[in-house]
Write a structure and sequence with these properties.
The protein folds into two domains: 192 residues, Phosphoenolpyruvate Carboxykinase, domain 1; 297 residues, Alpha-Beta Complex (Phosphoenolpyruvate Carboxykinase, domain 3). The chain is built from 19 helices and 30 strands. Strands 11, 12, 13, 14, 15, 21, 22, 25, 28, 29 and 30 form an eleven-stranded mixed beta sheet that branches. Strand 28 and strand 29 form a beta hairpin.
């Protein structure tokens, strides 16, 4: 750790090198000879054939393209990881030191510690050599979070400059760190050695002992040391989650809460005409709709607005902040806030951790989703020269991506938050909310909020209606026990129900401790007076014979359009709830106008008692 904390000399070539310098180290398809290109094209055709075979068997492909960097028509780059295309919690182990592991976490036991003693020595020795030469190891010093006084200095040390997608994409996902802080001791350290069995100088006997228990690939996390060590990986998803998982642990060390969530602030008028600022925190696993609900929602020209007779208003909008890990931490000094809705004592901050979004662009098209498309690719008149894609099928002939095919089931892109704000026409929104005090952030300006919506999103297919309103205790129970569906961003059976919240391996600590901490913090925030409301959305379906299936004579899929309409209706105080004695919670039964008239009845189509019959 002490060697890694020292880092490169500031004048070393690979001490925070420019993006251009990094790209110069890559195998760029456009710079190859004709013979080399022919070889790449032949390999690409073979990969396509293998992917088609895997997909026909219901499996994800292991690669989306050859080991090259492809210049894109926008001016950006496409990359293809070769050592895995999904997160591997089954290969992630924790050094348990002063905390209890959760149910799904794997402990780095004493046998492993003994086995890897020489490995760790070799890592330190190679770091010393490479720091002295200034070569081989790419050092990137970045910042996690942007809330003043609540940020982390994160350092990434990558062995092998040819794996340029790792630092390139990670840099876009994090915040700039002031230059004078780059030589300081980092709060978070990520060391990655993709070809570690060859690059560390290990003897053959030790290599065999490592391979025997299946440890040729390993992610070793020592949270109390601030370390995430990656051995044998080049998938960016693992490298982005490494520092974030340590940040989550550090937040808990200060009595804070870390959740997998999307984060936005919304400014919308209620049906009564009151303009309210709402923080939206939507907790949920990957690919369940939390970003759609929280970030991609549009108030302008909406169907609900038309039904309510509302005209578009420039003062309204949804300002996107974060789409993965959110930290809720106690403030050093509580703040007092006086709003039209009341006087509040604010005890906690709600902070996004990343600068841009590591998004799945599958199905995105310029015609159907111009906002998301522009945030990734740009336009003909304004191409996104910073476009970065990972494991997205790409035409080597015309340098264009194909977002309509997803052979690895986990294609990724960096979605630009600044371009997203521009396309959504909300660049002005934060300044309006804060009285011009700030114009850009990934953290919630709590003193400008009228309320906080805590939301859960999950996919079930039988008796859970599209929207329920919960008490705080019910909300925490839903997070503990509500099933989500495995979607393939981590190794596992796609479609298999599983419990995500508080038990995913990158959420450190016992499940019951995390649940109790969530209840305590949200209770403290509510005691400050600011309204805290709790909801759960089902983005799956209703009426299936079992939760494992999305089919059956009575089955109906809950559409994205319905979910987004309910999301907007909540912001406009336009949802009518009734108590359901079976579910023991308030269930959305209608959308109403300012006079309480029902403009959309949800009962017959979306309540389980109506679909299955009350006797069932």
């Amino acid at each position: 750790m002490s060697v890694a904390h020292g880092g490169h000399r500031p004048n070393a070539v690979l001490f925070n090198p420019t993006d251009e310098r990094l790209v110069s180290q890559a195998r760029v398809y456009g710079d190859m000879s004709d013979q080399e290109r022919e070889g790449v094209l032949a390999e690409a055709q073979q990969i396509v054939a293998q992917a088609e075979q895997a997909n026909s068997e219901g499996k994800a492909a292991s690669r989306a393209g050859p080991d090259v960097a492809v210049p894109l028509s926008s001016g950006g780059m496409a990359f293809f990881s070769q050592l895995g295309v999904v997160r591997r919690p089954d290969l992630t182990m924790y050094f348990i030191d002063g905390f209890d592991k959760n149910r799904d976490g794997l402990a780095f036991n004493e046998d492993n510690q003994a086995l890897f003693t020489d490995v760790f020595r070799n890592v330190a020795a190679r770091l010393v050599e490479h720091f002295e030469s200034g070569e081989t190891v790419v050092q990137s010093d970045r910042q996690v979070c942007d809330a003043p006084g609540r940020t982390f200095h994160a350092r990434q040390l990558l062995f092998g400059a040819r794996y340029v997608q790792v630092p390139l994409m990670w840099r876009q996902l994090t915040f700039d760190l002031p230059e004078d802080q780059r030589t300081g001791v980092p709060d978070i350290l990520e060391v990655s050695i993709p070809d570690w069995l060859n690059d560390l100088g290990l003897d053959d006997e030790l290599k065999e002992r490592i391979k025997e228990p299946g440890l040729a690939q390993l992610i070793f996390k020592a949270p109390t040391k601030g370390l995430s060590l990656h051995l044998g990986f080049d998938y960016v998803g693992e490298h982005k989650m490494g520092p974030l998982s340590i940040a989550m642990f550090l937040a808990k060390e200060t009595n804070g809460l870390a959740v997998q969530a999307a984060l936005s602030v919304a400014r919308a008028k209620s049906t009564a005409g009151a303009l309210k600022n709402t923080a939206l925190v939507t907790i949920g696993p990957s690919l369940h709709g939390k970003s759609t609900l929280t970030i991609m929602m549009e108030l302008a020209n909406s169907e609900l607005g038309e039904r309510l007779g509302l005209s578009d208003d420039a003062v309204e909008g949804v300002y996107p902040m974060n789409d993965d890990i959110v930290l809720v931490r106690p403030l050093a000094e509580p703040m007092e806030s006086e709003r039209d809705s009341g006087r509040y004592r604010i005890s906690h901050g709600i902070d996004g951790t990343e600068n841009n979004f590591y998004a799945m662009p599958f199905g995105v098209s310029e015609a159907d989703d111009p906002i998301t498309y522009d945030a990734i690719r740009g336009s003909v008149d304004d191409p996104n020269a910073n476009e970065l894609l990972e494991n997205t099928p790409t035409n080597l002939g015309d340098s264009t991506p194909n977002f309509l095919e997803n052979p690895v089931r986990n294609m990724r892109a960096v979605l630009s938050r600044s371009r997203l704000r521009k396309m959504k026409d909300v660049d002005h929104l934060l300044a309006a909310i804060t009285g011009q005090r700030m114009s850009e952030s990934a953290y919630v300006p709590m003193e400008g909020m009228d309320r906080v919506f805590w939301q859960a999103v999950m996919r079930q297919n039988t008796v859970i209606p599209p929207l329920r309103k919960l008490s705080l205790k019910q909300y925490v129970r839903v997070l503990m026990y509500g099933e989500a569906v495995q979607m393939g961003t981590a190794i596992g059976a796609i479609g298999r129900p599983y419990v995500e919240y508080f038990s995913d391996p990158f959420i450190i600590g016992l499940e019951d401790e995390n649940a109790n901490l969530t209840h305590y913090i949200l209770q403290q925030m509510a005691r400050g007076g600011m309204p805290q409301e709790y909801y759960v959305f089902n983005t799956g379906g209703i009426g299936a014979d079992s939760d494992e299936e999305s089919s059956g004579a009575l089955y109906k899929e809950i559409t994205k359009d319905l979910t987004l309409m309910l999301r907007e209706a909540l912001l406009r105080d336009a949802v009518k709830f009734e108590f359901d004695g079976t579910l023991r919670s308030q269930v959305a039964v209608a959308i109403v106008d300012g006079q309480g008239k029902e403009i959309r009845d949800l009962r017959s189509d979306w309540l389980p008692s109506e679909i299955y019959g009350r006797d069932e």
